[in-house]
Write a structure and sequence with these properties.
CATH topology of one domain: High-Potential Iron-Sulfur Protein, Chain A
Shape: elongated
Largest sheet: 3 strands, mixed
Number of strands: 3
CATH architecture of one domain: Irregular
Order of helices and strands: HEHEE
Strand content: 5-15%
Length: about 100
């Protein structure tokens, strides 16, 4: 009986490790400008296409890759954002939650 229980625990641990590594290996989807949360924040994948009349505080130098919420390293074209869990935003993007 101990052998079966031990095998079960080992296989359970191996299965859990495989699932967690699988999630890391899959590429995250990009945030679409049409997503409800993206629309609520005025997210644009290209900061030059932001409506400055609607968002007068927007500045051309404000990009996702210079935001405090940006979660990528180096000069990646896309990266994570703490506002869009599980999805990536464009480095050249912008939203109204941009923070220095």
């Amino acid at each position: 009986m101990k052998n079966t229980r031990r095998q079960f625990l080992i296989m359970s641990a191996a299965g859990a490790a495989t699932l967690s590594l699988n999630n890391l290996a899959q590429a995250q989807a990009m945030v679409a400008e049409t997503d409800p949360q993206a629309q609520a924040l005025g997210y644009k994948a290209d900061t030059t296409k932001v409506d400055t009349k609607k968002y007068p505080k927007h500045a051309a130098a404000q990009r996702c890759d210079s935001c405090a919420l940006w979660q990528a390293k180096g000069s990646a074209a896309a990266g994570g954002c703490s506002l869009f869990a599980g999805k990536q935003v464009a480095a050249a993007g912008w939203c109204s939650a941009w923070a220095k």
